[in-house]
Amino acid sequence: MELDLARWQFAVTTVYHFLFVPVTIGLSAFVAGFHTAYLKNRNPQHLRMAKFLGKLFTINFALGLVTGIVQEFQFGMNWSDYSRFVGDIFGAPLAIEALLAFFLESTFLGLWIFGWGRIPEKLHVACIWIVHIGTLMSAYFILAANSFMQHPVGYRINPTTGRAELTDFVAVLTNKVQMVTFPHTAFAAYLTGAAVVLGASMWQLHRRKVEDDMPMYRTAARVGAIALIIAGAGVAISGDQQGKVMTEVQPMKMAAAEALYETQDSAPFSIVTISSLDGKQEKVAITVPKLLSFLGTGDFDGTIHGINDLERQYEAKYNADPLTRAATYTPTLPLTYWSFRLMIGLGMASVGVGLLSLWILRGGRTHARARWWPLLSVAVALGPVLGNAFGWIFTETGRQPWLIFGVFTTKSGVSPGVSAGEVLTSLIVFTTLYAVLAVIEIGLTIRYARAGAEPIKEQAATSEDDAPLQFAY
Amino acid sequence: MELTTVWFILITVLWTGYFCLEGFDFGVGMLFPILGRTEDRRRVLLNTIGPVWDGNEVWLITAAGATFAAFPHWYATLFSGFYLPLLLILVALIVRALGFEYRHKRNDPTWRRGWDAMIVFGSVTPAFVWGVAFVNMVHGLPINADMEFTGSVISLLNPLALLGGLTTVTLFLLHGSLFIALKTDGEIRSDARALAGKVGFAAAGLTGVLLLLLGTDRGDSASWITAAVAVGALAGALAMNGRGHEGWAFIGTFLAIALLVITWFLMLFPDVMPSSTNAAWSLTAENAASSHKTLTIMTWVGALFTPIVVLYQGFTYWTFRKRIATHHIPPAHDERDYAPTAAS
């Protein structure tokens, strides 16, 4: 019971946290880009876009930040045995993330937000770039910690203490899973940021509130669309590499992604399946022949291991040790199967919208009158956000029953001294609080996205020392 | 020096940084209803900490992360043992941060009043709960042979710990009002100074009694000295405030809070979480620590980057060093009509 609740809490808080993180990473790059463009060409439209996107960015950053603290505390609160077992390795990237990245992000974001008119312009632009670099470093270190859970390297089990101990920190930071996960996640974040830029601009193009602003939004939409397509290519290429590494180090996850029961050469890739995924009855499925083998191994005739074979192998290998014994080594199939498809589908669909909008905005056109246009602008902004969420649901549930693949099961990691009632309390508190905050955040985002870029305010003619602040809470 | 001792000192530094820095922004948040009688005054208060509160809070995140890395057992026992108090702190920090960020995003009095309440709740709650938690930790907790906390939330609410909570709340109130006195101008500045004078006596008294009670139990010569200097620094701060030396007064409370935290950690060492069930089951800097290798790597990272962090955070404080008064506050952001207008 306590295990289930702790897992639910982790799932709810992580998925929620990760709704904001990619938006933050991606948008900060666009804010920095527009602010830099203004520095170079003094086009006030670029400054307006930087400020407009900056508002959407800070609304999301705030929620990403506060929900991140919950994540850090949660390891100790709900997973204390995991923390004891793996703190030697897992704690280091987490602490380094805080020391190197969080300080940078929060301090320089404060400088950027409040720095208008107070710090030299070039330094001001540098601040937002530093924020962006901070978000990327943060992603790197937390993903290194996660990659260790997917594919443990650079450690040994100390027989006296019974804990995992670090033997090679460079190996942890250059884990082969990390080498494909970080680019994949980073490209997905740029894709998400680009989609938000595109979506917000498309909406403005449709509304035509201020006719003179249309060229500005058209430029922004095109920048967003082009970045979306480039990032989409990056996501696809890194995702393909990730699939190959996953097939190698976590074959069960690949088998679960496909609901592939029997080991197969030249395995087909299934696009959708109707009827059950339990492998007992004939599936009605749309499949592409040999594609799965190619995705998993780089060879159209490669062998993909099936769930039944792997389950037997794992039972023989892991059942003897209490830390690695599990009732089943197969993850929940409908979850892995569908989250994998939704991740890919939503990512590809948003790239499709990027291409479509480029075509519609070709040759100086500024908008489409079509009724579905505003709907599409919301969909393109939300699609990648949900795609990211499904990506993480797939990655984390596909790892089950393991916390650390092949080393430590999830049920071994839960806090022994914490009662189910306590976990239930916090689960209810966080779920309720997060739901309320979601309503507030979505309301604010829509409000500011609708409002569009503010006109440039006339500054007081003299730079009087006692003048009002250019930005204040 | 043993690496475990080095890391014990570094964890002390991180918590000291956290309480000294976030201490004053907790204070500012708590003083919202007292010093922020009008909307302009509330916005002055907010803007004194606007650019820095977020960076201050990262000291907590780093302290927790560093404890995880350097002393995994300490992190595990502390965070699972203080489950519900930490839940309360997390909720408080979440609504407080969003209060700062979202309050000004709508020009609507009901909206702002709601976030104001969140800021006050979010500031007073952690200020109190951290005091309760630290005094419990220093005094000793029921911990079994498996390093697991065996008490309940009720057992955490003992009189000494409650005194600890009250002490941190009043100390942060004093610290916050001196920060406001230092960072503002006009009426609000003199109000803050007068308030600091009143709160100061309570803070000094409570700190003195708390350290005396804790000291009779766990004090040694070093911790008695730091405790005495802490109370001395508070007295100095009050004297300086009385004479209108706001900067010196603020340095005084900064020092007093730092010394309070240092005293706590001196009382702990070489334990990190003493067991009140059986002294042999206490978590110590030695038995709670990570491997030598991890500590070595972390020492390099910490030694290289902590000074850099201090430098650029210092730069932020220097950048925003100007005093703020009500006439510096620009009109509300949201004065434009945000109501949807028909498309063309």
TrEMBL record, chain A:
GO molecular function: electron transfer activity; heme binding; metal ion binding; oxidoreductase activity, acting on diphenols and related substances as donors, oxygen as acceptor
Cellular component terms (Gene Ontology): cytochrome complex; plasma membrane
Record membrane topology: Multi-pass membrane protein
Keyword field contains Membrane: yes
Listed transmembrane segments: 15-40, 52-70, 90-114, 126-149, 187-205, 217-237, 338-361, 373-394, 423-444
Keywords attached to this entry: Cell membrane, Electron transport, Heme, Iron, Membrane, Metal-binding, Transmembrane, Transmembrane helix, Transport
Family (UniProt): Belongs to the cytochrome ubiquinol oxidase subunit 1 family.
GO biological process: aerobic electron transport chain
Protein name: Cytochrome BD ubiquinol oxidase subunit I
Pfam families: Cyt_bd_oxida_I
Subcellular location: Cell membrane
Keyword Transmembrane helix: yes
From TrEMBL, chain B:
Protein origin, superkingdom: Bacteria
Primary subcellular site in the record, as a coarse category: membrane
UniProt cross-references to InterPro entries, sorted A to Z: Cyt-d_oxidase_su2
Record-annotated membrane-spanning stretches: 6-36, 82-99, 119-140, 160-182, 194-215, 221-240, 247-269, 297-320
Protein localization: Cell membrane
Protein topology in the membrane: Multi-pass membrane protein
UniProt-listed GO biological process terms: aerobic electron transport chain
UniProt key word Protein biosynthesis: no
Any one GO CC term of the record: plasma membrane
Keyword set, alphabetical order: Cell membrane, Electron transport, Heme, Iron, Membrane, Metal-binding, Transmembrane, Transmembrane helix, Transport
Molecular function, one GO term: oxidoreductase activity, acting on diphenols and related substances as donors, oxygen as acceptor
Family: Belongs to the cytochrome ubiquinol oxidase subunit 2 family.
Name of the featured protein: Cytochrome C oxidase assembly protein
Organism from which the protein derives: Luteipulveratus mongoliensis
